[in-house]
């Protein structure tokens, strides 16, 4: 950032009119659960040899899926597409017990790469169902994570897709209801849904801890800060990535004049940059950093070579590999670092 002559203080924060710059949100990109899931497939391919089957996209990013396919992974929708006795990896979004049982019945060797933070929500669903609560699960219909969580207690779960749906929710016993949520939702919208649910069911119970995960929350906090100063926000992430799509929405809510999602830098349209001084950049939790770096290069070519990082948290959370893999890899230790952690930056 160029300095303004004769002005004291935080000169680097003072934009010069007409100066093109990028504000790069941090944290962004890979979370601990995605990192673990992708490495699980890579390690499975190395250890067992190709092909290794993966139920659904291991994480919701087309680039990651394409790269793993090139290495020998085969992505399927359901376990009955997998040859008996083969290795199958369950994606980071989790699976219902019915899927686990179907894989077992087929004699598949399953490696469960469900993010531990999704597993935590599954356990909550099981526990509240056991205590005969009706579970109001806030999430998006058809999303794999929601299907997996609901599948833990199908007779006890009612899906709530948005604040507006609350008006139509009916329950058996209004004094025995709890809300849980998908891990990758908008924090603000979810709180609004909960507010309306509590208005309707004053004795609504809360989950024991946040279901929206640290990575989703951190990326939203960072883009809120960036969006306040951005004419345009570009989110790198795939269309089926819930947390990436939420970042576009949050950027618009918090002041960005425009916000778009792209899988690749080549999708950025020249007209998006017309009259734009400050471009905010971030990426969803399933996006490798190389895709962000490619976007920064393209922006630099377009005159936005000045990049300042806006960091709102440090992350160094790590998850160990799925236990099935750890067992098979025992004696063949891999020290590759995983993930990040949720530590606020002052
Ligand atoms: S976004 Fe959150 S819940 Fe999903 S894989 Fe990452 S850490 Fe886990």
UniProtKB/TrEMBL annotation:
Pathway noted in the entry: Isoprenoid biosynthesis; isopentenyl diphosphate biosynthesis via DXP pathway; isopentenyl diphosphate from 1-deoxy-D-xylulose 5-phosphate: step 6/6; Isoprenoid biosynthesis; dimethylallyl diphosphate biosynthesis; dimethylallyl diphosphate from (2E)-4-hydroxy-3-methylbutenyl diphosphate: step 1/1
**Where does the chain bind isopentenyl diphosphate?**
60, 93, 143, 241-243, 286
Q: What is its EC number?
A: 1.17.7.4
Quote the catalytic residue positions: 145
**Necessary cofactors:** [4Fe-4S] cluster
- Give the first-level EC class, as a single word: oxidoreductase
The record's annotation in InterPro entries points to:
LytB/IspH, Rieske_2Fe-2S_sf
- CDD domains for this protein: lytB_ispH (cd13944)
Q: Which residues take part in binding [4Fe-4S] cluster? A: 31, 115, 213
The record's remark on the cofactor is:
Binds 1 [4Fe-4S] cluster per subunit.
Catalytic activity as recorded in UniProt: dimethylallyl diphosphate + 2 oxidized [2Fe-2S]-[ferredoxin] + H2O = (2E)-4-hydroxy-3-methylbut-2-enyl diphosphate + 2 reduced [2Fe-2S]-[ferredoxin] + 2 H(+); isopentenyl diphosphate + 2 oxidized [2Fe-2S]-[ferredoxin] + H2O = (2E)-4-hydroxy-3-methylbut-2-enyl diphosphate + 2 reduced [2Fe-2S]-[ferredoxin] + 2 H(+)
What is the top-level taxon of the source organism? Answer: Bacteria
Q: Metal-binding as a keyword?
A: yes
Under PANTHER family, the record lists: 4-HYDROXY-3-METHYLBUT-2-ENYL DIPHOSPHATE REDUCTASE (PTHR30426)
Q: What family is this protein classified in?
A: Belongs to the IspH family.
User: What is the protein's known function?
Assistant: Catalyzes the conversion of 1-hydroxy-2-methyl-2-(E)-butenyl 4-diphosphate (HMBPP) into a mixture of isopentenyl diphosphate (IPP) and dimethylallyl diphosphate (DMAPP). Acts in the terminal step of the DOXP/MEP pathway for isoprenoid precursor biosynthesis.
Q: What is this protein called?
A: 4-hydroxy-3-methylbut-2-enyl diphosphate reductase
Q: Which gene encodes it?
A: ispH
